[in-house]
């Protein structure tokens, strides 16, 4: 259970208090992530099939169920941060208990359905590993002390040039996208199906912080003509003038990061932007966001290398990385697409509790593709469909431009 | 200007107070609809091109602009109901003034762009005619007296049988949808483009009130497993147990209508439901909603006959109407589709103020197709894309089922 | 029924729409005031005692009950503005119907309780006459056209000097305050009782607009040290920088009034201020607000002359009015006192519905004394206790300073 | 510094997480209470006068200032729970640092003003000790596990009879109340002054849980006629049907307490009620709440013995305690009075930061007298004026009845 160990390592930097507090309803306490992913194995795997398994604590079903209506009542989401007990230490003991039972189970002969469910549990845990990082970043950003989750790393002081953005052409036609069922994929990634694309062109790299500063300084946050109607309403209601976690001090842009409060690196990809901002930037640049099918079509066959959670830091594009294909597709930031999160043709919700996994969120969300510097290595693939509401900014979300071919 | 006259006729049943009050931020006062559609002609047509046109009242630009950021400041939407002056009579005088100037203008030689703009103004006015009706219904529903907008009409007392629902098969493949630019269409209806459909089947008629009562009585409003996550949250937060305007009294379902408070007609199409409810019903029935492309593909070539605003009343399907094609496609209720309102491939926003017409709403809304009993005759077509947020219920919105072929 | 006629005269300037709209939950539509005061006579007087009285419309009990829980359900207060029907004309017909029945009743022999109740109804109506004016002013202030309720009156262009404020000394000791039961008084004005005052001094006149401008320009609205904690929270939350209805344009202060948008008259009393602002001003000036007992002790025996609703306009103190007593005690603006609205010793709530008149509001409100330019003549007296929550600003509320003797 | 030690003892039962979380904006984290009281000594005493004092951490001024506008910016109150660092252990180290410096200072010759300030700091700390308990109770009540702060104590199973309530007569006349400046008192307790009382009678004991259950079961929470208007609005908006922390299970009333979830003891005083509930109970019982002057007049000269924080538990009245005077005046629960929290005659706000202590809260609050089972011993006196808004229920607040003499 290498995946399970990674969660523990993320918790190593956290105190009991760090792991307990919830800084907004969208975020969850680290302790909750650690326990909920454990609860998943206990509830979905051990309780149904592991003979003689002893439930660690009956009350945890109420505490650590997320949204599975079929599995019973649960602590209301905005009150997850009020559960000061069990402590972080007790949650880690819960993890040990469940991990030991899982190891025993894994030594026995498992049928395919069970193996699939365990694999789902591991991918589910990787999702929560990313959320644990984004939620801790949000929590730490709320403290005036701006604590760092990991040691700061010096930013190279030499000004780096970002290579100009190039648009790579793709032919249209009928293409296939979606997960074909071989290897792991969440239910919403399939079924694999044909779709028709018009010719299009896709930027070879992500939009950078430097380009975003140009957007800010062109007055874009004050010009309603650039914005979706709902976006402009949010901009005004929330007083947004730059990405989440950014501040301008004495003419310089700074940002709260997992490494503490840091000056903005102009060459690194911009992140912590909403769909509204991504869309407005694209409109301001005379381009548009790609659809998810355009993105996936371009991503198929690319190596899944990137800049993953082991780093937790957004790096600029290396100068030497000058091959002709799209770069920064995986492991930098999640890329907003212009596609709403909706079912693929012939999508069917799975039976039972895991059927609540994705289908019930197919309303009011946009798809993001790629994977970020907070995503676990091994958790990305070309068919992966992440999704968030258009106003969400606390994820490592950025953008890549596209245009009609 | 036959279209303009129709607005006036709608106002004939309204007092100055009826026409002034705004009963929720989503709705607008009737007076505002009457003036805003007039302002559109004055601002977009007369002021730029009509030599010697005298503006009726300079203050009306502030009062009756809807959301055109490019045309200046405006009365905040939730405060439209605080404008007690000008009175309804003055607004009607404003209409006369603008209509006379438009008539003079129409007698001259107009270039094509101008003709297009005037045509847009007429279709814009038809949209507001429908909103005037839905908004008045909402206002009257808020009064304990439940006034009727038009004379009640007796509901036939004989129990009518609704013919069983049949699913009509459609082949998949590459089809064309969208407006081709001949005749009028809103910008978002085009460009016409190819899309790929899998085989599917579409119900021959709308879901009825009687079928909806079965859904209610099966406990669907209390079962979270039926609902999109956001829908279930809304159901609980708002305490919804039946469509908007419905009430149950002594075991019988009643509803507020434009003809006052009336018992439900089981054979008529259900309406005043949200996207969430439409989706939940489809899930409960083991079916799904159609995509907008599926709907449009089925609608192409059908006669645009229906049951329009001249009636303002939802009627059951006539028993004799038993041909093999889809029925009730136009003029009964708007049909929720499972498609988010997003740009078609190669869609470009128009330049200038009319460019704010549709594009900036392409976020967070679902497409509805067809047209309702409150839609103006001549305002429907197969390519028409209406859109509302998933929680909206005050329109005449219903549903038709679909399934994979 | 001279009082009843006065209400009608106030309505003469209003259209059906003016009289119907509600511009905030605290305010009520003019039509509602006109009908509710009528409902009071119908419900409390005619229905119980007038033989053969025919109720004008059964539905009006639901529509026009204000807050009498004992008299049944009622239209929720924030939805009073959704009642477009009955029209203003019908409400006036309702008034005629009830007035005729009241005239018949008044020709008969009435017992004392009934006479008292009718007198209460007249005073109740006078209260609503004032509210009708303050509520119309609020409504008209929400319209960008800023309509005038009455004809504007030129403000004398010559700069007027305000006489310096003088503090009049009052000895302490045991004094009597409160209504002694002779003549009309609301229940909360009594019983008359002894209270102990320390020596104090009371300003001879009200604080003026000019003095208030000094307070603004000294930065008081930006200095938290001046404010009650709840007041400072409101100042910040609402962005208050001057009294309600004020605006600064090109260095000059203007205000929305019943006579339309007008430049501020520096010599007139300041009004439309909250308790928080009155308290902060007094603190800034090194003084305090008087208690209600101090005010009443000073007011006893003064003539009830003033500047009443017949004028509806705040006038400066006439220069010639230089006698030695306190001036502007009645009929300019309501004066905030530092006394919470609480029961006098031995106060008992009246039995029945009229018992809901005042007692149930004895929480969270401050007492105002005097009477304003919008108060009906004949409605003021030294014992009168008006009350509003500390944040209320839409009444004609101002202040008079006091200090310890 | 015995007072300082008591705070530490309260913290002994708390984990880092327990001490960090904030369960509502009205409450503060335990860690915050521990640090803020320390900050008070550091900021008000050590920094101004202790030569060579080294500030423990400069950032703590921002973190642990409560509401002193004059001492600079501060962490917004609703975000106090987001400060996971410093940890509880670091806050305790901060306490040690400041305590050592204070001990050094106390060995030197101090002038009277400084001694007064230090005494104020100790009383201030005692106030926060009580808040720490009430805030932890609120936090623990939000957790589905309902942890106990201290060990549960068995409730005697034998049914106890509560002696009937007796009303003790007090003569009216001019009495003196308020703090006379000898010994410690908060600024708002003075100056001592004369006030005039009418004859009155005061209950010899507090209202019990058993009597409150009668009130509940008489339907009082459903009868609007019993309630202040604002109280009834709160009752309905919040769905209150019993005191805070109470639940009814299988016909028995239970309550969350510092000793965990416990059955209600009918003989113990009722607590965790709002002013609205206290007032409604008194009205239902045909009595009224006492004024604060009536309460203080009765309390003068009584021994300050009670049932203090050492116990943290509300006990019934001992049967043997049958002397003729008022009982349970101190150390059971805070008793709501019908007096608004307003300045006494000739009250002056102190200069400097401590002047923000009480005066700025003199609006919208009611006075409570006595002291509760969570109050520190040595912190009560007859002149003590506690105050809370009428809707507050998370304090140990109860009531004693009064009536006119």
TrEMBL record, chains A, B, C, D:
Under which pathway is this protein filed?
Amino-acid biosynthesis; ergothioneine biosynthesis
Q: What residue stretches are annotated with the DinB-like domain?
A: 5-130
Write down the SUPFAM superfamilies for this protein, in alphabetical order.
Answer: C-type lectin-like (SSF56436), DinB/YfiT-like putative metalloenzymes (SSF109854)
Sulfatase-modifying factor enzyme-like domain ranges (all copies): 168-304, 324-402
Annotated Pfam families: DinB_2 (PF12867), FGE-sulfatase (PF03781)
The record's keywords, sorted A to Z, are:
Iron, Oxidoreductase
In Swiss-Prot or TrEMBL terms, this protein is called: Ergothioneine biosynthesis protein EgtB
User: What organism does the UniProt record list as the source?
Assistant: Fulvimarina uroteuthidis
Q: What is the lineage of its organism?
A: Bacteria, Pseudomonadati, Pseudomonadota, Alphaproteobacteria, Hyphomicrobiales
């Amino acid at each position: 259970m290498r995946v399970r160990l990674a969660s523990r390592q993320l918790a190593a930097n956290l105190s009991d208090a760090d792991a307990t507090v919830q800084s907004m309803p969208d975020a969850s306490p680290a302790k909750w992530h650690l326990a909920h992913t454990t609860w998943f194995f206990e509830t979905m795997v051990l309780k149904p099939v592991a003979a003689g398994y002893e439930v660690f604590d009956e009350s945890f079903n109420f505490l650590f169920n997320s949204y599975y209506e079929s599995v019973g009542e649960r602590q209301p989401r905005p009150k997850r941060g009020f559960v000061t007990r069990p402590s972080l230490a007790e949650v880690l003991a819960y993890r040990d208990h469940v991990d030991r039972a899982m190891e025993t189970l894994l030594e026995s002969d498992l049928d395919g359905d069970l193996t699939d469910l365990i694999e789902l549990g591991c991918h589910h845990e990787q999702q929560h590993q990313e959320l644990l990082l984004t939620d801790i970043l949000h929590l730490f950003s709320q403290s005036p002390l701006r604590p760092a989750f990991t040691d700061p790393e010096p930013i190279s002081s030499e000004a780096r040039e970002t290579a100009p953005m190039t648009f790579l052409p793709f032919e249209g036609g009928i293409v296939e996208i979606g997960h074909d069922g071989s290897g792991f994929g969440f239910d919403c990634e399939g079924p694999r199906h044909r779709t028709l694309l018009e010719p299009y062109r896709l930027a070879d790299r992500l939009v950078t912080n430097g380009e975003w500063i140009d957007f800010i300084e062109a007055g874009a946050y004050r010009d309603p003509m650039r914005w979706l109607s709902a976006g402009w309403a949010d901009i005004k209601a929330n007083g947004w003038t730059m990405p989440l976690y950014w501040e301008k001090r004495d003419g310089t842009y700074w940002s709260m990061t997992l490494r503490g409060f840091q000056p903005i690196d102009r060459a690194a990809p911009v992140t912590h932007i909403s769909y509204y901002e991504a869309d407005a930037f694209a409109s301001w640049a005379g381009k548009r966001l790609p659809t998810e099918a355009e993105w996936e079509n371009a991503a198929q066959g690319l190596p899944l290398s990137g800049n993953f959670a082991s780093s937790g830091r957004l790096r600029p594009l290396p100068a030497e990385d000058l091959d002709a294909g799209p770069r920064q597709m995986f492991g930098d930031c999640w890329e907003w697409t212009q596609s709403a999160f909706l079912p693929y043709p012939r999508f069917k919700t799975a039976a039972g509790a895991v059927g609540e996994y994705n289908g019930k969120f197919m309303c009011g969300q946009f798809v993001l593709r790629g994977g970020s510097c907070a995503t676990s290595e091994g958790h990305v693939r070309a068919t992966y469909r992440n999704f968030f509401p258009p106003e969400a900014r606390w994820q490592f979300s950025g953008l890549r431009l596209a245009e009609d071919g």
